[in-house]
Amino acid sequence: MRRAGLGDGAAAGNYGYTNSGYSVYEEENERLTESLRTKVSAIKSLSIEIGTEVKNQNKMLSDMDNDFDSTGGLLGATMGRLRMLSRGSQTKLLCYMMLFALFVFFVTYWIIKLR
User: Are the CB atoms for 104 and 97 separated by under 8 Å?
Assistant: First the structure.
């Protein structure tokens, strides 16, 4: 029984495939393999860059969180002082407000007079 492509005319190293058909498929596989390799390399470098960017963003967020915590502490202390000031005598607060308004009035008058 004879098969197509096998027999006396076939070379020993190509396992019965004709040279033209086998080499075309092999070249196409090599080309597709190289294309896949470049795509995988591009995706790998992109994922590494994304990882680096995520690390930088996490560090920046951590720094911002620390800054907001310290600002919150400062604001809480200021609110505590204002609360204590408002609990004191109202005449003292009114006197401070009047002195501040008078100071602002004189500074404004002085700036206008120098023009």
Answer: no
